[in-house]
Design a protein that fits this description.
Elements: E1 7-12, E2 24-27, E3 34-44, E4 50-56, E5 59-66, E6 74-83, E7 90-94, E8 101-110
Antiparallel strand pairs: 1-8, 2-7, 3-6, 3-8, 4-5, 4-7
Length: 111
């Protein structure tokens, strides 16, 4: 049987950032794998402050604050990494609409 190896995951929000409360998939898990999130950077360029969340499918596993009109990004290292359930989508979302939050994330998928 072939050994399952870790696979890197990189996420970058669309141009203009997250503008709704709909979650964006950070990585689509491979069968039998889970997504691990080790780094997250974000900056809310909009005039409305909000909270930013990381979800294991629909369950919030991390919550942060995204101040309005950010001039520099917030950078977070998760040590140990956040992890989603096996075969579950890891997502990033805003709690408030009318933001313009640019997000980048790094991690990996492993069994």
């Amino acid at each position: 049987m072939a050994e399952k190896l870790a696979s890197p995951v990189y996420y970058s929000s669309a141009t203009g950032g997250l503008t709704t409360t709909t979650g964006d998939n950070i990585g689509t898990p491979l069968a039998g794998f889970r997504t691990f999130l080790s780094g997250l950077q974000y900056a809310n360029k909009g005039a409305t402050a909000s909270e930013i969340v990381v979800l294991d499918n629909a369950t919030v596993i991390w919550r942060g604050y995204a101040p309005a009109s950010a001039t520099s990004p917030v950078s977070i290292v998760f040590d140990p990494p956040l992890q989603a359930s096996t075969n579950s989508q890891m997502k990033v979302a805003m709690i408030t609409t009318a933001t313009a939050t640019v997000v980048s994330a790094q991690g990996f998928q492993a069994p």
